[in-house]
Amino acid sequence: MNIFLVFLILGFIFWGYKKINSKKIKNLKLDKFKNKLQSTQTNIDRIFLREEEKTFSNPNINIYIGAYDNEDNINRKSNIHRARLSKFKKSKLNGEMIFQDDEQRIYKLNNGKKFYL
């Protein structure tokens, strides 16, 4: 009976040791990638990225730069505005449509007249 208990205890010890050591070392990069895809912040960033792409692809969407925007937002919005001007030759900023002519001069229309900025 004692021999049976010794073998049983050794079997449990061997089984536990094998179970602990059999776990594969996970790929840290893969875990980081999975966690990044599942995080709430990544989903929020994706939504903002889609919104920026929509704004960039349509020059008729108004870009509002307010007095209380931080510097990063102002830079991001002004870069989108400049990119739309160079691509579409027009962009709506703070409710006013601004145009760019062939000589790279920027103007806005008021009652059919060009006012260069």
List keywords for this structure.
117 residues; alpha+beta; 2 domains; 4 helices; 15% strand; rod-shaped
Describe this structure in words.
The chain has 4 helices and 4 strands, in the order ααααββββ. It is of the alpha+beta class and 117 residues long. It has helices at 2-21, 28-38, 40-57, 71-88; strands at 90-93, 96-100, 106-110, 113-116. The relative contact order is 0.07. It folds into 2 domains: 24-57; 59-117, no CATH class. Helix 3 packs parallel to helix 4 (71-88). Strands 1-2-3-4 form a 4-stranded antiparallel β-sheet.
Spans of at least 5 consecutive residues with low confidence: none
How many domains? The number is 2
Rg computed from alpha carbons, rounded to a whole number of angstroms: 31 Å
Nearest-integer average pLDDT: 81
Find the count of extended strands (DSSP E, 2+ residues).
4
Number of distinct helices:
4
Q: What is the N-to-C order of secondary-structure elements (H for helix, E for strand)?
A: HHHHEEEE
Structural class: alpha+beta
Q: How does the major sheet shape up?
A: 4 strands, antiparallel
Spatial gap, N to C terminus: 99 Å
User: Strand order, biggest sheet?
Assistant: 1-2-3-4
Which range best describes the helical content: under 10%, 10-25%, 25-40%, 40-55%, 55-70% or over 70%? 55-70%
Which descriptor suits the 3D outline? rod-shaped
Strand portion, in percent? 15-25%
